Amino acid sequence: MRSFSSIRKLVMAAALILVPASSFAGVFISVNIAPPVLPVYTQPLCPGDGYIWTPGYWAYGPDGYYWVPGVWVQPPMVGYLWTPGYWGWGGSAFIFHAGYWGPHIGFYGGVNYGFGYTGHGYEGGYWNHGVFAYNRSVNNINVTNVHNVYNRTVVVNNYNRVSYNGGHGGIDARATPQEEAAMRDHRLSPTASQISHRDAAAQDRGQLASVNHGRPQVTAMRSVNQRAFNQQQRVANGVRSGQMTAGETRNIESREASINRQAANDRAANNGRLTQQEHQQINQRQNNVSRSINNDTHNAARQPQARPQARPQARPAAHAAPAREERR
């Protein structure tokens, strides 16, 4: 059994290397091991009007399952909603059904992803004459940034954190006629920012289930561009714990500053935007920094803890008052 698993992993790795990342959504992926349970996390604040919440999920790569953080993204067009991807038992392996954009919510395995994705449909909001209305009962909304809101209680019947449909221990759910009809609607693949977001998670070893044991370092982001902030938080955590030395910290901060300068220069030369090639270059450099942070926080180097200096003891005065009278 072990040799079969090793061969399967090698074949899977080769297939993933040969397939371009941009075409991942159309790749047929099957795995003989069930994905981990969904981690519990807090939804970041919605960045502004028009953003749609896309929940986090377990994806699969050459090194096994890895967590793709939940993130607020802008839909490819007004009126479209996000149907999350899900893992389903296919009789001999778990098959990934990729998420997609469409005018209606389709079937996503009955998985309760939270924040309005209760397992069937979406209770987080709806499009109203070209404007998206947000349900504040399930979304983290700041009314200063987002104005079209309402409150509607959402009843959830599925409270488990199982992340797959069918098979041993999986969710027993079937598509409704409405969900089947939605799957026949016009559908759009994940946007370029979603693909970049997923690829970034794939390059971060801290997101691997084999490394984090089902507790990813980053569970959710306010936006795809928040990755640099999250990496700064990882550095801060490493400094506080003593896992990152002063030299390692300076190196990471210098590289982050260089990336920020590159992004600023590229935007200035392109009317405030980044081209797809520039996005890829920035993402690759951030991937390298992320790997360095992971290495720095897991190597043998430690920041020496400062020892408190001994205070010189003052000589008692000739007529010192009793100690109990000094405590006021």
TrEMBL record:
InterPro entries: YXWGXW_rpt (IPR024447). Keywords: Signal. Pfam families: WXXGXW. Residues 271-288, 300-321 have a biased composition (Low complexity). Residues 1-25 form the signal peptide. Coiled coil: none annotated. Residues 180-207, 234-257, 271-328 are annotated as: Disordered. Residues 234-248, 289-298 have a biased composition (Polar residues). This is YXWGXW repeat-containing protein. It comes from Edaphobacter dinghuensis.
